[in-house]
Each structure stands twice: as C-alpha cells, then as structure tokens.
Amino acid sequence: MNKKIGITEVVLRDGNQSLLSTRLKLDDILPIASKLDDVGYTSIESWGGAIFDSCVRYLDEDPWERLRELKKAMPKTNQQMLLRGQNLVGYKHYSDEIVSKFIEKSAINGIDIFRIFDALNDLRNIKHSVEEVKKYDKHAQGTIAYTISPVHTLDTWIDLAKEIEDLQCDSLCIKDMSGILSPEFAYELISKLKKELSIPIHLHTHATTGMSNLTNMKAIEAGVDNIDTSISSMSMGYGHSATETMIYLLEEKKINVDINLKDLLKISEYFKVVREKYKEFEGSMKGVDLQMLVNQVPGGMLSNLETQLKNLGKEDLLEEVVSEIYEVRKDVGFVPLVTPASQIIGAQALSNIVNKRYETLSIEIIDLILGYYGKLPGDINTDLLEKALEQKTNIKERPADFLTEKFEDYKVNLKQYCEKLKIDDLSSIEENILTFILIPYGSEKIFKMMSS
Asked: I want to staple 22 with a disulfide (CB 3.0 to 4.6 A). Which of 54, 275, 362, 397 is the partner?
C-alpha cells in the first residue's frame, strides 16, 4: 500500500479533555507549539469541544485569544475544531444567526477545519453550519457520532454517511468517542463507505476499551484516509492511540505518513512533564475499561464525571452512576453519548442515583425527550414521555426553526452587563458578545480580567 495516511494530532483538545478534564493552559502549550507545527500533521485539533467553556470557567483565558495565539504559533499546520452543529460549543441550540456569526469569527481567528457533528445524528442540526463554513472557503467535515444499540446498524451508518456527503461536506469523520468501534466492524464499515462515497474518510477513536490500535489499523486496511492520535505521553486510558505507536506501525507496513518519528520524542517528553502539573484532574482508571462495551460512556465524560463526583464528595457513586447512564440512555431512545446529550444523561443518571428514579427531570432532559434537541434514534420510555409532556409539548420540526434570537440584542445585553459589573464596555468586540452568549453565567471573571 503506497497511499499516504494523514495524522491529526489531538493532544491540544480531545487529548487533554479526555485525560485532564480540559485543564491544559495556553501557557503550557505555547513553548512546544513550534515543534508541533514542524511535525507535518494533516491538522492539529486545538479548539472547540469543551475548550471554550473550560477557558472561561476554569482557565481564566479568553478562548478567542487562545485561538489567535495558537494559529500564530502554528501557522504551517491546519488548525481544527470540534463544532457541535447548532449547539456550537455550548449546551443548547442557538439561532441560525448566532451560528453564522460564530463560524465567521472562528474562521477569521484561525480555524481551518471544522469537524461538525450533532449528538443525535440529526443532520438538520448540522446543515446550516456546513453551509456557513463553506462560505469562508474552510473545510467542512461532516461527522457520524458512532454508537452501538439495537437501533443502530451498518445500514444506518451507510445511509447517514451518504446524506452527509449530499450536504457537500469536504470529508466524513467517524467519531467513536467511547472506543467501542471494534476492529472488524471498522473494517466492514469503512470498506463499504469507500465504495459508496467519493469524499475522504477520517477516523476518531478512543483507547478506553483497549481496541484503538487494532481499530485504527483495520480502518487503514479498509482504506481510511486519516486517523486521530495523541502524543504518547498524553495517550491511551480515556484518551487515544499514541501518535508514535501508530506511525511506527504504519512504517512497518510501508505506509507513507511523512512524519519523522524522532521529531516526536521531544514533544512527548515535554508533555510528560506538563502532565504532572495537572494530575489532580486525572481519572482513576488504569489499563482499559471493558464495561464501556456495555455502558458506552466516553472518556471525556468519564474523567469529567469523576471530577464532579470528587467535588461533591460522592466519588464512591461512580460505578452506580455509570450503570444508570446506560439505563437512562435506553429510556431516551439510545442517543449517542456525546456532548450535550452525554451531559444531560449523566446529570439525570446522577439524580436518579441520589434521589428516587426520575423523581426530578431536568429542563434539558425534558427538551431532549420532546424533540427540542432533534429527532431521537429510537423509542422513548412511555412513562418518561408522559411525565415530560406534563411540562411542555413535543415538536417534530427542526429545533432551530423556533429560535429567533438576534446577535445585536446580545450586544445591548453585554453592554448592560458590563455596566452592572462596573467594568469597561466590551460589547464593541463581536467575539466578546459570542462569549457572553455561549457562557452567560461563567463569563464575569474573564470579562473583569479583560477590562482591567
């Protein structure tokens, strides 16, 4: 096989999100950025996902400045982000106007590749994002949020992939956030997709269940075009296959990657030292977790759930909550466990363990059940549906069609917010307005820092 395989390095986003609860600061990235830029990666995933939220709530960083600094430090390499379609990088749907403005500013500030997905695989929730990305001549990567359930079959994924290609996406990503894509099924799926699609296929899988190296290699045998990896000192566990391991295996098979293994040694050593600084945020899992093949809880969700339970002094409940997550997921139609659905289901599972089962329903899970996040893949538990319908009506239309919020209205709101905080007016900068829209209850500290 002489075909070149692309490598996307994820240590700056999903690598640290999965292992360190997204706590990696910009100051610990910039010293190694030039070396990352010299490697020859297809792209570096450096933004999106939980990064935006974490910057504002925990890291005391302006997420937009972080993006600009990363782009400036790595000008030769495509910067990639994970975008939750109509959710952007928040936890609810936003109007088309807000989505358009966010994508415009992301493209201007440095994002080259937008990996766009919807937690429910409802393509009505990514169509507008894809169209907006292409307006700026950026790469729109449509994404399958992979899961296993009685309602998800090989034909499900093939049909979904064809629909993604029909949206005029530049490539397709299979996003296996739980590490549950088996090597054999990966081979079967990708072999068939290569016959059905004309766009490149990327694979994103996690090491949680111990299958990622084999899955990546079988995907490569089947013809996949690009794989995601994380530098070795920030790999495996809840994270991803090690970049160096995969390159070594590819070289053994005489597959071209155009990356010198020796160039990665200093990068790995650097992150080994940096990781020590963040050990308080690491999850407790050692080795692999085969229960993921049953409960299918993704790595990023697990490490964040452990941190939350630790903060509540309830870390002993982790096993019960993980088991309950599966039950809640089944009751709401087997949604893939990916943001924001994973957070909604995780919170409900915790509530079910601490309180009487379904005694309290969050606003978010009511909206999920009733179609306000999109179409659920399977049937909903009848009793749960009836309880949700006591609160509001269900919808079958595209959720964003009900949203009419205007960007300019938030500009006025931010100006008033700054007056209330007795700080300089920050509303003249559109990126600040977007931060205010996306993280309205966590932005006080960051805005005070920006005005001082």
From this structure: 54
Read off the DSSP letter of residue 61.
-
pLDDT in tens, 349-404: 988 988 899 999 999 999 999 999 999 999 999 999 999 999 999 999 999 999 99
Asked if 318 contacts 306 with a C-beta cutoff of 8 angstroms, the reply is yes
Integer angstrom CA distances of residue 446 from 61, 243, 357, 440, 452 = 7, 34, 38, 11, 10
Q: Say how far apart CA 46 and CA 48 lie, in whole Å.
A: 7
Q: What is the distance in angstroms between the CA of the first residue and the CA of the last residue of the chain?
A: 57
Is pLDDT at 451 greater than 90 in this prediction? Answer: no
Q: What gap in Å lies between CA 366 and CA 385, rounded to an integer?
A: 8
Q: pLDDT tens digit string along 184-231?
A: 999 999 999 999 999 999 999 999 999 999 999 999 999 999 999 999
Handedness of CA 230, 232, 237, 241 (dihedral sign): positive
Q: Which residues of 359-389 are buried (b: 16+ CB within 10 A; e: fewer)?
A: eebeebbbbbbbbbbbbbbeebbeebbeebe
Q: Look at residue 2 in the predicted model and tell me its pLDDT.
A: 60
User: What is the predicted pLDDT for the residue at 228?
Assistant: 98
pTM for this one? 0.93
Residue 178, helix vs strand vs coil: coil
Stretch (H or E) spanning 46: strand 43-48
Residues with Cβ within 8 Å of 131's Cβ and at least 6 positions away in sequence, in order, are none
Count of positions (residues) in the chain: 452
Q: Strand, helix or coil at 176?
A: strand
Distance CA 220, CA 215 (A): 9
- Give the pLDDT confidence score for residue 77 in this predicted structure: 98
Q: Sign of dihedral through CA atoms 218, 221, 222, 228?
A: positive
β-pair partners for 204:
175
| 106-110 CB contacts, 8 Å cutoff, 24+ apart | 106/47, 106/67, 106/81, 107/133, 107/136, 107/138, 108/136, 109/64, 109/67, 109/68, 109/71, 109/431, 110/47, 110/67, 110/68, 110/70, 110/71, 110/72, 110/79
pLDDT given at position 94: 97
Quick check: 44 and 74 in contact, CB under 8 A? yes
